[in-house]
Amino acid sequence: MSVSNLLENWSQFRHTHPVDDKPHDPYKWAMSIDLDACVGCNACSVACYAENNLPVVGKEKYAHGMAMHWMRIEHYWDEKLGEEGGSEFPDQGAQFLPMMCQQCEAAPCETVCPVGATNHTADGLNSQIYNRCVGSRYCQANCPFKVRYFNWYDYPTTDNVWPAEMNQQLNPDVTVRGKGVMEKCTFCVQRLNAAKVTAKSEGRIVHEGEVQTACQQACPTSAISFGNLIDPESRVHKQWRAQQVELDKDKQSKDEKEGGTNLRGYRILEDMRPYPSVMYLERVRESAI
Amino acid sequence: MIDSGFDRRDFLKVMGWGGAAVALSGCGNTSIEDGQETIVSYVEAPDYVIPSIAVYYNSTCAQCDAGCSINGRVREGRVLKLEGNPASAINRGKMCGLGQAGVQHHYNPDRLREPLLRTGNSGETITWEKAYALIAEKLTGVSGEEIAFLSGGVSGHLKALLGNYLDSFGCKNHFVYEALAPAVVRAANKKAYGVEMPRYNINKAKVVLSFGADFLGAWISPVHFSQQYAQFRRGVDGQRGVLIQVESKMTLTGANADRWIPIRPGTEGILALGIINALGTATGDIAAAVKGYDTARVSKETGVPPGQIDKIAAMLKLRSPSLVLAGGAAEGYAHGSQNAAAINLLNQVLGNVGKTVEAAAAVPFPQMAPATGNTAALKSLNDGLAAGKYKVLFSYATNPVFTAPGAIKFRDNMAKAGFKVAFAHYLDETALQADLVLPLDSALEDWGTQVPEYMADGAQINIQQPLMEKLHANTRGMGDILLALIKQRRADDYKKFADYYAYLRTAVLQNKGAFGGGSADDDTFWDETLSKGIIKLAGTKAALSGKAGVAGLKLPAPAEEDGQYPLQLIPSVNISLRDGRNSNQPWLQESPDPLTTIVWDSWMEIHPKKAAELGIVEGDIVEVTSRTGSIKTQAYLFPGIHPDAISIPLGQGHEALGRYAKGCGVNPFQILDAVFDKETGELAMHETRVKVSKTGQRVTVVKDEGPAGAKQIREKIAGQVSTDKVDLSKEV
Amino acid sequence: MHRFLRLPILLMGLFFAVSSYAADTPLPEPMTEDSLGPVVEQPIEFPHNRHAGDADKGGMQINCMYCHTYARRSAVAGIPPLQKCIGCHQNIESVRETPRIKKLFEYWDAKKPVPWKKVHDLPDFVRFNHERHIKRFIEQQNRPYQEACGYCHGNVKEMTVARRSKALSMGWCASCHQKDHPVTAEGGTPIGGQAYWYGFQKPVVADASAGALKAKGPNDCWQCHK
User: Fold this and answer.
1) 3-state DSSP: chain B helix, strand, coil percent, rounded to 5?
2) Treating both helix axes as pointing N-terminal to C-terminal, what angle do B8-25 and C3-24 enclose, rounded to 10 degrees?
3) What ipTM was predicted for this assembly?
4) B4 vs C contacts (CB less than 8 Å)
5) B&C contacts, CB < 8 Å
6) Nearest-neighbour CA in chain B from C59: distance (Å)
7) Which among A1, A190, B489, C76 could bridge B168 via Cys, Cβ 3.0 to 4.6 Å?
8) Residues facing A32 on adjacent strands
């Protein structure tokens, strides 16, 4: 491996991912979120707390940025709000963005873990192994989306975040994390595993609609689509195809009609080339009012 | 340390040997924990229980009164998570965050476990037998007029049983109180459409013009409306729906509008009439009534630019059918009924009645139909309490000491009642004032039926069944309590029911035919009903009257400037906190307010322009003073509010209720003035005027959005595109 | 450093090492391959050999899954509910008054479950799924149940109470997953149909001419450590 070779073929090396030589088969879990349907109600966020044993950190720790919301709703105002050329009121409302681990194909977090606690699984997820994590937090520093959350405190025991009888609500399928461990959205891997066990025992793959993530299941407007990107029958596959967004491209070449009619699918921070598995559909606002 | 000669190399060698040896001793041993833990099997395992495989039960959510159906995931006898029941037409398998927190209500560490009797300033535990005996004793020799029963909204068999109980001593004083009730809208609907709660078909409308109706947030049936909204956005006849929200303070629904219009508080009715005028299609007495409301005048009075009014009228004309909604923002005034009437009139004029405003099906059992709450009931009760009228006061599913407007001094008046009984889950503010507190089963442990006020397709009765065994041995279901109480008075009629479950089962089976049971045998029908979680009925549909009425429609001129109290207080209804009944559920406190992202506290929203005038920056602790009282909270600069108004969320400021709610924020209910809607007597929530002054203190606002606020840094993260630049027909 | 001190420090280190090694060992038995786990005392000394043992040794040859019934349909194999024991024993007069059975009925009469101590207790961060392994080895590969269960649980039919006799460490589990499992027989016929395929890693062509494919078990961290 010479330096010149490295420099010449940098973009290929940069792009090549451990999984590349073994393309995802038969599953590649992906998501698509319609920002026009998302109303910012936070149901997905609370559902995630319920499903994944997320600790409630309280006001003081929240102030220090230690909130543990794997799925968070970001809100944005229009850029020109309150500025020159803009309005003093948010005339077109706010913009809500559900943000969680994008399960990047070329995840910046995977390469920097000193102990290999975060890896890419065969079905396209970015795994976080709690018992291996030693808490260096390098992965959190590297994540461009800032969707990794660190257990700064011992929430289950010392902080007693689940006093009796709240501890009976904990989901036994999900590890309760101790101090010093990194955690993040897993696309509800416990549900995926359970669905795969059922499917394997029946000798088939998991069908579309058979498994839902907690956030997808709760969302009242069905803004979240989740499924197997490889399965041509899945809604997620059809949406990515319709929006002409491809998983392993860092710059989508969309075949857009003349006259400026856009497709509204995009991925966030795509130019940083982490190849996220989540596609967002731009929110639409009526131009005639 | 030891001197010379022992350098780092030596140290490492020694430590290395020692360390390696120690490490080696770890080899071959695993983390296997044989013999450390106990594994306890069942004594007798039910057939369907397979360890590590969940079973699911259907029931009804009780976190708000929308009546969504839930599907509880139960493992090894513990309910873990709630999902929506796909069979319900109301929520169709979906759940809101408030509903998810239902498990935190059930497992809440602050739940009451034993009946409590007041002795001086503390409470001692007593037995249920003693409690029932005490109630019987206190009711002896008391006439029906001297007894009052205050409850929240009730429906289903519990309502019937409660009615029979009150009947048994000739008591007609059942006050049904909800702090946040669309009561003015109900009354206006009754006049305009002939029914209190029609169906609003958001998914059939091309344009929704909402005057402060937060249907995506906390208005009537948000999960149902959210689903309709999703269909509305995907388009009717290929055309994406347009949402226009008119209100003085941005709600969650307003945040999703295509056009959000800040309006001068109280002038919503004027705008409605102005739009009718601009439409130019009205005739007869309607045309006469709106003649004076030309665009220029309306614009001046409401603050809405004339061009905007014309645009709205043009769009409503072009895209039909539309739907106009009157929400809290419209009705929270002394002329709220007038505002609501003007807004309903707009529906009439646009021809929406019968299309997007339709009759809802009703359950054909009036004794089960929901008794809906309002604030006029509380005022009535308060007047009676003040006059010393009541010797016995019962309180169930309500917390008036917290939610009553400070001006009516409910707590003081409640003390005048002779004997006060509270049926409660927590020691909330009202229970603390009671003489006898009886602990209730949680919603996930109890039996019942519920009839929602807002009906989706067809009529349905929701079944509530326990999702697991009782958590605390000594709580009781409200139905069981009522049954025990009614047996004190009508033993013969009710002794055949061992418990409320038996009563419910008998009552449901009696109407098996009407409930679609047909020829099924009793057990099968009952099991199927429980399994489905709802009973679907064709129901009866009242016709909509469709009579456009301008009679009595007289909108007042916009309120004068009040020099002493220059700002209007808009108490906001937050999606999770609402009237504060769920504030002790930590997920909800930690769930950021969608518009400000603030957690675990209260805040005062103020427009940046007004804040600059007053020299207020984010985090300043300000004192908000009304004629009734004052509260202090942190300021938050919020562009989505009219500069003449400020907003503080309801639901915080508990002094009791539990560890997660106590001491969080402030309670704006306390400083609300006693102003009421002239027609219905409902509390006019937005009529309190305040002044704001700095205290000199400043804190860091604890919020999710970070110090940069809601700017999109460096590049557009949340993308937005306008309709003329996107082709939605290509979508999946 | 003084040469005098170097040796004592080294010896101290060795002493600590040996004593910590020794402390981890259940004395006096030395660790051998056959008796890896500690002896775990149970509230009732349940004789697996009597129930599951071979007939010529006085056993009744009861299938493991008659009692540990959840193994084929759940992640956990399960300890049988007391009802299962009583189901047979209420009809066996001949042993009704023996000390262990008397104790059993004491629990039953008091309706209290027996507080068994868990043997084969994997740490909480490992999630093992019995169903998949039963399906693979017993149902698809048609191995005898005692061989399949015994691979991990040892020769239970010759024990009274269970005692761990395999390492059950991650390396030990992974070593089996690393083994090549035949996916197709000679001539290319898939074994066990399509059901057999799923869950394995992509097969490597072991013997192209014979058409036999072999594949390894899952090595995805998140399969077991989710």
Assistant:
1) 30, 20, 45
2) 20
3) 0.93
4) 1
5) 138
6) 24
7) B489
8) A225, A279
For residue B723, which residues of chain A lie inside 8 Å, CB to CB? Answer: 284-288
Mean pLDDT, chain A, whole residue set: 90
pLDDT digits (tens, 9 = 90+) for C90-138: 999 999 999 999 999 999 999 999 999 999 999 888 999 999 999 888 8
User: How does residue B266 score in pLDDT terms, banded at 50, 70 and 90?
Assistant: very high
Q: State the pLDDT at residue B707.
A: 77
Contact B723 A288 (CB under 8 A): yes
Reported as a single tens digit per residue, the pLDDT across B189-211 is 999 999 999 999 999 999 999 99
Superfamily for the B183-358 domain: Dimethylsulfoxide Reductase, domain 2 (3.40.228.10)
Q: Does B2 touch chain C (CB under 8 A)?
A: yes
C226, A200: Cβ pair inside 8 Å? no
What is the pLDDT, as a whole number, of residue B347?
94
The residue length of chain C stands at 226
Q: How far apart are CA B427 and CA B584, in angstroms?
A: 11
How far apart, in whole angstroms, are the C-alpha atoms of residue A104 and residue A117? Answer: 16
| Ranges of chain A with pLDDT below 70 | 1, 9-23, 256-261
Q: What is chain A's alpha carbon radius of gyration, rounded to the nearest angstrom?
A: 20
Average of per-residue pLDDT across B454-469: 94
Q: Which domain holds residue C200?
A: 179-226
- Dist. CA B379–CA B175, nearest whole Å: 10
Residue C212 belongs to some domain of the structure = yes
Q: Of A278-287, B29-38, B563-572, which range is least confident?
A: B29-38
Tell if the CB–CB gap between B721 and A285 is shorter than 8 Å: yes
Does B104 lie at the interface with A, CB-CB under 8 angstroms? yes
Q: What is the pLDDT of residue C115?
A: 94
**In the predicted model, is pLDDT for residue B180 greater than 70?**
yes
β-sheet bridge partners, residue B55: B74
Mutate to test the interface with B, among A52, A91, A271 (most CBs of B within 10 A): A91
- Residue B3: pLDDT band by 50, 70, 90 thresholds? very low
- Number of domains chain A contains: 1
Cβ <8 Å between A130 and C225:
yes
Q: Is B597 on the interface with A (CB under 8 A)?
A: yes
Residue from A56, A198, A263, A267 whose CB has the most chain B CBs within 10 Å, to mutate: A56
Q: Could you name the CATH architecture of B116-176+370-540?
A: 3-Layer(aba) Sandwich (3.40)
Residue C25 has pLDDT above 60, yes or no: no
The nearest alpha carbon in chain B to A238 belongs to B732
Q: For residue C21, name the pLDDT band (cuts at 50, 70, 90).
A: low
Is B25 in the C-facing interface, judged by CB distances under 8 Å? yes
Q: Is B229 on the interface with A (CB under 8 A)?
A: yes
- Torsion from C-alpha of B480, B483, B485, B487, nearest 10 degrees: -140
Answer yes or no: is A115 within a domain: yes
A126 strand-pairing partners: A120
Q: Distance between terminal CA atoms of chain B?
A: 74
- Determine the distance from the C-alpha atom of residue A242 to the mean position of all C-alpha atoms in its chain, rounded to a whole number: 21
Task: Tell me the nearest-neighbour CA distance from B28 into chain C, angstroms.
Answer: 8
3-state secondary structure B406-429: HHHCHHHHHCCCCEEEEEECCCCH
pLDDT tens profile B129-156:
999 999 999 999 999 999 999 999 999 9
Q: Which chains are adjacent to chain C, needing at least 3 Cβ pairs under 8 Å? A: A, B
Residue numbers in C near A190 (CB within 8 A):
226
**pLDDT tier at B643 (50, 70, 90 boundaries)?**
very high
Domain B567-698 sits in CATH 3.90.1860.10 = no
Residues in C closer than 8 angstroms to A193, CB to CB, are: 222-223, 226
d(C-alpha B270, C-alpha B64), whole Å: 32
Is the pLDDT at B550 greater than 50? The verdict is yes
